[in-house]
Amino acid sequence: MSMSVLAGRITDTLTQVRDRLAGRGDTVTGIGLWLLIAVLIVSSAVGSTQLFVVGVIVGSIYALGALGLTLIYGVLKFGNFAHGDTMMLGAYIAFFFLTGQVARTAREDTELPWALDSLPGAVDGIGDLTFGYGLIIATLLAAVIIALLSVALDRLIYRPLRRRRSGIVIFAIASLGVAIVVRSLMFIIWGPDPRVYVSGIHRAQSYPFGIVLKTDQIFIFAVAVALAALIYLLLFHTKLGKAMRAIADNPDLARVSGINTEQIIVWTWVVGGALVAVAGVLLAVQSQINPLLGFVILLPLFASTILGGIGNPLGALAGAMVVGIAQEVSIEFFEPAYKPGVAFVILILILLVRPRGLLGAKV
Amino acid sequence: MTGMDRLKAPLAGLSGDKLITPLAFLFITTLVILMPAERSGWDLGGVVSFLTYFATTVAIFSIFTLGLNVQWGYTGVFNFGIAGFFLVGAFTAAIFTKGPPPPPDPVTGRPYVEYVGGFADKLDFIPFLSSGEWLPFILGAAAAALMCGVLALLLSIPTLRLREDYLAIATIGIAELLRNIALEEEGLVNGPRGLLGIPSPLAGLFEPADYKYVYLLIVVAVLIVVYIAVERGIRSPWGRVLRALREDELATVASGKNVFAFKMQAFVFGAMIMGVGGALYAYQLRAISPEGFSHFFSTFLFWVMLIVGGSGNNRGAILGAYMVWGIWIISLQLQGYTPARPGPLGFAIPEILQGRIFFIRDFLIGTIIVIVLLLRPQGLLPEERRVSIWVERQARRRRGSSWKPGEGTESPPD
Questions:
Q1: Which ipTM score applies to this complex?
Q2: Model confidence pLDDT, tens digit, residues B282-296
Q3: Choosing among B166, B167, B360, B372, which should be mutated to test the A contact, i.e. which has the most A CBs within 10 A?
């Protein structure tokens, strides 16, 4: 009898020691990772300033996408593979409101008699920007529509799956199905050719340290920072945000504390959808609109989310910046076609050394 | 019992649940046979060769769905990067069976075609039995399986201990990366131009016109071997562990199984099957390019096939490949119905939709998967309840004494 008690004690002690050691190892890995990231960022900022700055801008677009992805991941517990394509759909909807164009044939467009660009002065550049207030209204409309669409898709597809208690894999496949549907719709409605909001060559300004930037890019960064700040306020200073974080942390505990999970899920889709629509427009301002970009961007978004820690909005911001900068600076060393590869390598590394991410909870 | 229930009772045996599989099968089969027949002006020879090609492709894709069934259907390992294994399998087989690349252009000094490998002559090391017709192909398929197995092994180390969706994202990433490498590194497999003139097994022994039937037989033979291998594996104690850990990982750990090792074995086994499928695909097409291994075509389509057919059921995996590839082919046939040349009853696809038929097909496939997941998640042929053959035998023996066949009960007591 006493022997078994003793054995139990010994096992307990051993477990405790191991847990403590593991905890320390984890802290060490965490500090090591942060240091590594700091070194990489500083060296690339000094070594190739121009690429670094572009990386920050790309990273801020990723950040908006990754914020929505990580919120949905945290609250609904599945990776939304339709996120990238929803992002492109947002960009297309804004394009449609702005120009009223849909593809009639492969080369030719049908144009609605009236669109936002018919408003007086709607396409005249604001200051040094290439676009006018028309695009801003179009973006707001796109954000509203994507938010509503996300809620509708949740009602139609994800909620029934939730009721049936399907595994995360079923959700993932369903979301991939949604991604395919969304992408094919973009091809059907707007055709395969890339689109831009404002055609022509855009002048870039020179800044100190040999940086060349378009004013649009500064605008992208400013919008991303403002929206990220807004999300921070929402998550950490409102009841809704508190409820979201509670569900992300522990859904069962949140439910027994009287949080209406379904209602919070609806709001999560609204916030995530609106964010991703704006991110899509910003991406299109930075490069172009193209139905295939939705899939290309999915991997950096997931890499950012996992690097930051699933369900952690601050982590998603940090992760997106790291991925964006790493991808742009990689041009210095590899072919640009390997940009998705950079996101992938980051993803594999983080899964190997610290799967819960920089700021995530234990998985 | 309400009135409604009484009305339903006699129809219970004929409910839509049981009818849906044969009806869907009949529908697709009718269209697959009739549409090309109508388009070719009821030319029997053309239809037969069309159906032969169709059946060959279905058999090759069935090998993929069987491999995916080992990974996902039985083990719950979430491979979202089939495209990567497909690409590796096809290109490995191609560079094993092609001869060495031709010498570079004498004027510019630049090579026409660049690729590594080209082992066909070296692999033909048996001097008799016209081994050049089959030996390099078997070795090529084996190498394809091996490469895919190694790839799966490497991928499983960082991901298989984690939640299943991590593997999904990692496999998507590797598929995309491999496709980029194949496109960018021109010296590897000739870059975006891809490899042309891949030889086919036994092609030199038959008339080119008859070869398609021979190749169908070869592919079906391989499919049967793979099917038996998977069935046996799944019925074995090994397969039972796989299904156990799919249902409840914790309970499997608690009964002393090394879950990671079993998952890895299933992932590698499935990937090797996919490698064989990729090799057969390369031998059939004879020309492959990295562009062809897109995510939509080579990952998502196999998932749709398996889920439509019924994951966890090998016959379902094959049926799913048939049904979905049938839909794919039918939608291609639709393109022939132009307003200038309408089909029966004046059926025609308007001009405006003609150029978009591929996207409409993608839309259809995406919608099908969502609808199947919502309304019939078990697929057309659901997974059967399986116990060990020993338990089954035991049960049969026990039944022999107390329960006689044909006594009226449809389902014997468990």
A1: 0.84
A2: 999 988 988 888 877
A3: B166
